[in-house]
TrEMBL record:
Keywords: Signal. CDD domains: PMEI (cd15797), RNase_H_like (cd06222), RT_nLTR_like (cd01650). It holds the Pfam family zf-RVT. GO terms for molecular function: nucleic acid binding; pectinesterase inhibitor activity; RNA-DNA hybrid ribonuclease activity. This is Reverse transcriptase domain-containing protein. The keyword Manganese does not apply. Residues 328-598 form the Reverse transcriptase domain. It comes from Trifolium subterraneum (Subterranean clover). SUPFAM superfamilies: DNA/RNA polymerases, Plant invertase/pectin methylesterase inhibitor. SMART domains: PMEI (SM00856).
Length: 1103
């Protein structure tokens, strides 16, 4: 054991605070030239409670199952030797060893071997790391004053260095051991990252400590110490806790008899024969592969311990077995018992849970089962649009739950404004208790049968639903098995689609009542659709006339639905809002009949609590946040950034404004989010959806209410608008900057009122124009018999500049439909990301949005993020050198704290200080320091010049060296610790080399200068024809030309053609036009086996 500094002790106490003192042994392994010493923490696994199930963590997937099987076998042999007289451990390790040494790669054989990981956990990595660091110490000389041979590291003559080895063989061994050590670092971080479930952290230093503490916190939070049983008694022992959990789920999943017929008789067939052929076609390997790679690799494994990362990494090796097994199971009509076993993990909803209702059950299924389930789900969702009514907005492709949220907001706003009239109206928000868990399987089967699904489709679905066996994880003890008789598993890919099929029965009941006149929907204005209900997956909004008759009818419908489907309405969490023209007494009477709480006031609470509060991004998707709120948020984040998170009175120096920090990294910022621009981009997406889907329910309602006789871009704000429309109205300006009409027939595009011009920021035809032009459509400017501009007519109607813009707008004969497209994306579809960039340019201004400099070179440098960040701060003038502090009116001594000779600025501290210059030499970078190209008068220009002329590896080494120099400067200033230039140089090289080794293994590629591949024309295969196309643009002429040539498989020219057009288009559009002409020509010539290739891009397509 060694004495550790008090800081290290505090750190270790924080990390291992969940373990008793007798269970922890900490040993310093080796002090290497990196950020910290390596400490081996040995935890007594036998005192940590029950053992955990096998988890196939990504770190071990890389180590055990890819390249290091032999190393792992050696580790197991060492464990056998160290297990001493413990026969249980010896037998277990020997079984694992035989599993690793087998040649059979099937999952069943390697699973026994992988059980080793249950015992090794983090300590297995620590053991190997300890052995490696010992080997590194053995090959490294203790003589810190001797010189390293310049031949060994390839440095220039005269280079100073501190690396010392006993001999050349030791130097090579050091390199090999360092790479193996980097591999272990990845495994260590990967292990804790998976257990921490922090998928958002993508880059930076090795974050093992962060992930370890997160995993420890998650483990402590999940622990349940007491529960209240059904009889009201409080239980504490593990055995009693397990019994309470089992009893709860046995009751929850217990089936009950239901009356299906009154509901099922209302369901009409909706699935076509073609749909059934698609749904029941034999599965193919590509479908399974697609389903697998749609899963996040680090998702928690099921009972078998294999996570998605395992199957994704070894897809080539196990794909045939998986495909064969899946096909066999579906063909014979049942699964193996173990396949659909499911663990239920209990996540506390609050601190110190005391009831099972305080625990959120999460189903952990085997990935092998999820692949099959997801294949069926991917097929089913393609047919949902015709199976599910328009009132349901969740889980149906092409619909958005936000659409129904917007409709609900408009209705609540309308009821709030309704103060006159004898007819009142109400909205009832109902909450369904344990909606997924109580779905009746017989009812689900009946619904699918009535909708027209074949017996094969239904059998496959019911295999997935009914073959499940549960085990509850209570403090890591498995409780079970529990065999359910009803319910859908949340998290199963099929469950959401099956659930909304069940909710179609509620829609059918309501539609029948409306058709009979027993129930009336609500209409917010003349011309708007009448709506009786809205569905948000398992949440429901019901709307009707506020009278006793209709309220009783509503309750009868809900009761019928409960009896048939097994669902239960939770009246305690349901709420009703009634229009303001009803008396308070009448409102109370109706709420009493319904048995739900009456919501008073504005009614916004209903929407916020039921829908918006669940996912905060929904709020920013529908409402423009107040400027004062956005400003406060950005100020807090800015203060946190510059203060470093310390809650003290020192606010720190705000070197840059938030607007600058929010600029992209390529433009001199840090890419932080500008909330105003992001908020407007998200709201603009709703406006875009209304423009693109005019026949959707929300589009019809919004248009009828706010712009019945115009387009969204011309709509006035209107009288007493809702907050949602007010937000959309303000966001449409940003939307208009990137939108334009794509000309098809031209009938729907108004010349003077729509955005359709190309090649200019202003897409409107400018006013004033002759009176007759204002009523014209674009179709009136085309020839009658073919799609081309009527040049004479255009020039007669418009001035020279406007006529030129019109005639340069391209026309494509194959495009027949007028459609609004988004210019900022190649596919013409709106994205929040591209609109955010557009909004940033307008909100911040182009002068702040882009600052000149080779910022890309900084961020592409091969170095740790902290080193690249230092380069950015240096170039942005944000480093607190003494000259910079003086500029900020901070009184301080100006001399350099390291050499105490010259005034400290960026140029001095990094390039001119004697300690810095010697450090450059010690790090092997003297040639860069003295290069005449890098002798600019300020540090920023020097860095940019290096980024432009040196490889990313060299820039990375420079960045790491500058970080080390700055770190040494701060250590001297605040702690009076002094390092020699040799120590600084060694630290910089070692730190960079360690990072580079880890980064190389993680990315499987090394960035740097690569030779450009030569593009050569290749002959097509026998029997095929190759068609090469290209587009050319004559600058300033507004003319685009394309060329097409066909060659056979011997390279002989078969045909060629050229065409030009007086138009302004992008290079991508030019190549697309050329491909379109080539395809038309190939069809005209009767060629059916053609390989099309774009000359500039090298893209190849076969037809």
């Amino acid at each position: 054991m060694v004495r550790l500094s008090s800081i290290v002790v505090v750190f270790l106490l924080c990390v291992v605070s969940s373990y008793s003192a007798n269970d922890v042994d900490v040993q310093e392994i080796c002090k290497k030239a990196t950020d910290h010493s390596f400490c081996l923490t040995l935890l007594n696994s036998m005192s940590g409670g029950p053992g955990k199930d096998l988890g196939c963590y990504a770190s071990y997937t890389i180590d055990v199952l890819r390249t290091n099987v032999s190393n792992t076998i050696n580790v197991i042999k060492k464990l056998i030797e160290q297990s001493g007289s413990d026969p249980r451990k010896q037998n277990h390790y020997k079984n694992c060893l035989s599993g690793f040494e087998t040649d059979d790669g099937a999952l069943g054989e390697i699973e026994e071997a992988l059980q080793l990981l249950k015992d090794l956990d983090y300590n297995g990595v620590n053991m190997r790391m300890s052995a490696l660091m010992s080997d590194i110490n053995d090959c490294s000389s203790e003589d810190e004053t001797s010189m390293l041979s310049k031949h060994e590291l390839g440095f220039e003559p005269g280079t100073l260095h501190l690396f010392t080895f006993k001999n050349e063989e030791a130097s090579m061994q050091y390199q090999e051991l360092s790479e193996r050590h980097a591999t272990l670092l990845i495994q260590e971080e990967g292990y804790w990252k998976q257990r921490a479930k922090m998928h958002w952290l993508q880059e930076g230093d090795m974050n093992t400590r962060f992930f370890h503490m997160s995993a420890t916190a998650r483990s402590k939070k999940k622990k349940v110490s007491k529960l209240i049983a059904d009889n009201g008694t409080e239980v504490h022992t593990q055995e009693e806790l397990c019994e309470v959990a089992k009893s709860y789920f046995d009751t929850l999943f217990k089936p009950r008899d239901g009356d299906y017929d009154p509901v099922l008789n209302l369901i009409q067939p909706r699935v076509t024969d073609n749909d059934n052929v698609f749904l029941t076609a034999p599965i193919i390997k590509v479908e399974i592969q697609q389903a697998l790679f749609q899963m996040h690799p680090d998702k928690s494994p099921g009972p078998d311990g294999f996570n998605p990362a395992f199957y994704q990494r070894f897809w080539e090796q196990c794909s045939e077995d998986i495909f064969s097994a899946a096909s066999n199971w579906l063909e014979r009509g049942y699964f193996p018992t173990s396949l659909n076993e499911t663990n239920i993990c209990l996540i506390p909803k609050c601190d110190n849970p005391t009831s099972m209702k305080d625990l959120r059950p999460i189903s952990l299924r085997n990935v092998l089962y999820k692949m099959i389930s997801k294949v069926l789900a991917n097929r089913l969702k393609c047919c949902l649009d015709k199976c599910v009514s328009q009132e349901q907005s969740a889980f149906v492709e092409g619909r958005s739950i936000i659409d129904n949220a917007l409709i609900a907001i408009e209705f609540i706003h309308a009821l709030k404004r309704k103060t006159q009239g004898r007819r009142g109206e109400l909205t009832l928000k109902i909450d369904i208790s344990k909606a997924y868990d109580k779905v009746d399987w017989g009812f689900l089967r009946g619904v699918m049968t009535k909708m027209g699904f074949t017996d094969v489709s239904i059998r496959w679905v019911m295999m997935c639903v009914s073959s499940v066996n549960y085990s509850v994880l209570m403090n890591y003890d498995r409780v079970g098995p529990i065999s359910p008789g009803r319910g859908l598993r949340q998290g199963d890919p099929l469950s959401p689609y099956l659930f909304i099929l069940v909710t179609e029965c509620l829609t059918a009941l309501i539609h029948r009542a409306v058709g009979r006149g027993d129930l009336h929907g609500v209409r917010i204005c003349r011309g708007a659709p009448e709506i009786s209900h809205l569905l948000f997956a398992d949440d429901c909004f019901l709307l009707c006339t506020a009278n006793v008759v209709e309220v009783n009818e509503l309750m009868r419908i809900l009761h019928t639905y409960e009896q048939a489907s097994g669902q239960e309405i939770n009246l305690g969490k349901s709420e009703v809002f009634i229009s303001r023209n009803m008396s308070h007494t009448a409102k109370e009477d109706l709420s009493r009949i319904l048995g739900v709480r009456l919501v008073l006031g504005t009614g916004k609470e209903v929407m916020i609590k039921s829908v918006l509060q669940a996912i905060p991004s929904y709020v920013m998707s529908m409402f423009i946040l107040p400027a004062s709120l956005i400003d406060d948020i950005e100020k807090m984040i800015n203060a946190f950034w510059w203060r470093g998170g310390n809650n003290n009175n020192n606010k720190g120096i705000h070197w840059l404004t938030w607007d600058i920090l929010a600029c992209p990294k390529t433009h001199g910022g840090l890419g932080f989010r500008n909330f105003e621009a992001f908020n407007k981009a998200m709201v603009a997406k709703q406006a875009w959806n209304i423009v693109q889907n005019p026949n959707s329910l929300v589009a019809k309602l919004i248009k009828a209410r706010y712009f019945p006789h115009s387009s969204l871009f011309e709509a006035p704000l209107g009288y007493n608008p809702s907050f949602a429309w007010r937000s959309m109205w303000h966001a449409r300006q940003i939307l208009s900057f990137g939108c334009r009409w794509r000309i098809g027939s031209g009938d729907n595009i108004r010349v003077m009122h729509d955005l359709w011009l190309r090649g200019s920021a202003d897409k409107w035809v400018p006013s004033p124009q002759p009176a007759g032009v204002y009523q014209l459509s674009v179709r009136d400017l085309l020839h009658d018999n073919y799609k081309a501009w009527n040049i004479v007519k255009v020039r007669n109607l418009f001035s020279g500049d406007v006529a030129k813009k019109i005639l340069e707008t391209p026309l494509v004969s194959s495009v027949r439909e007028d459609k609004v497209v988004w210019e900022e994306e190649r596919n013409g579809c709106y994205s929040v990301k591209s609109d955010y960039r557009l909004a940033m340019r307008y909100i911040i201004g182009s002068d702040k949005y882009h600052v000149a400099g080779n910022w890309n070179g900084i961020w592409k440098a091969q170095a740790p993020h902290k080193a690249r960040h230092l380069l950015w701060r240096l170039c942005r003038g944000c480093l607190p050198t003494r000259c910079r502090l003086l500029e900020r009116r901070v009184e301080c001594i100006l001399n350099c704290p390291v050499c105490d000779v010259e005034i400290e600025d960026e140029l001095h501290i990094f390039f001119r200080c004697v300690v810095a210059r010697d450090s450059w030499c010690a790090a092997g970078l003297s040639s860069v320091l003295h290069n005449g190209v890098y002798q600019q008068s300020n540090a920023m220009d020097r860095i940019f010049a290096m980024c432009s002329n040196e490889s990313s590896d060299t820039v990375g080494r420079v960045a790491m060296l500058l970080w080390s120099i700055w770190h040494n400067r701060n250590d001297k200033l605040w702690n009076d610790n002094v390092q020699t230039p040799r120590q600084i140089g060694r630290y910089a090289f070692d730190a960079w080399h360690d990072w580079y080794s880890v980064h190389k293994l993680q990315s499987n590629s090394v960035s740097g200068t690569t030779e450009v591949d030569l593009v050569r024309w290749e002959k097509p295969a026998l029997g095929w024809v190759k068609c090469n196309v290209d587009a050319a643009f004559l600058s300033g002429s507004g003319r685009t030309s394309v060329g097409v040539c066909f060659r056979d498989n011997s390279g002989q020219l078969m045909a060629g053609m050229t065409q030009w057009q007086q138009t302004v288009i992008s290079p991508v559009e030019g190549e697309t036009w050329a491909l379109l002409l080539a395809m038309e020509e190939a069809r005209h010539r009767g060629l059916d086996r053609v390989q099309f290739e774009s000359v500039d891009r090298g893209h190849s397509h076969e037809a």
